[in-house]
Write a structure and sequence with these properties.
With 130 residues, this protein is of the alpha+beta class. It has a domain of 83 residues: GMP Synthetase, Chain A, domain 3. Helices cover 30% and strands 26% of the residues. The chain contains 3 helices and 5 strands; from the N terminus they run E-E-E-H-E-E-H-H. The strands form 2 sheets. Strands 1-2-3 form a 3-stranded antiparallel β-sheet, with no helix packed on it. Helix 1 packs across helix 2. It is elongated, with a radius of gyration of 19 Å. 6% of the residues are buried.
């Protein structure tokens, strides 16, 4: 997979891949989430995809199910040290499926990449003007 990252103006930085564009921006005049907020959102939304799939495979309604994501940062470094995902289910959700629902969310590909992060290599290359 390849993404094209460009700079459409101001503090905006956008990522283009396939038919999609992910727009990011920086305060104070942000018109889109920051790149880091988008990154953090990918954790909860990825878990949500697995929760949704689990429910759909079993014919369980998803109405009333939501995930609350909480970030805990180190007060000295500002770095996120822990992320909690709380799957909230309505009282009608079958108790017997709750442990499996948690296990399904733990299959998230974003979470798995945290556990074994990829190497990131940065380089610069001169290209001819378009």
């Amino acid at each position: 997979m390849e993404m094209l990252i460009d700079f459409p103006g101001g503090a905006r930085v956008d990522a283009h891949f396939g038919p999609f564009t992910v727009k990011t921006d920086q305060p104070p005049a942000a018109t889109a989430p920051t790149p880091f907020a988008t990154f953090l959102a990918s954790i909860g939304t990825c878990a949500g995809i697995y929760v949704l799939g689990f429910c759909q495979q079993r014919g369980l309604p998803t109405e009333g199910i939501r995930i609350i994501q909480r970030m805990h940062s180190n007060p000295f470094t500002g770095m996120v040290e822990k992320i909690d995902l709380e799957i909230q289910v309505p009282p009608t959700f079958p108790e017997k499926y709750r442990p499996s629902l948690i296990r399904s969310a733990e299959l998230c590909a974003v979470k798995k990449h945290f556990e074994n992060p990829p190497a990131i290599q940065v380089s610069a290359k001169e290209v001819a003007a378009a």
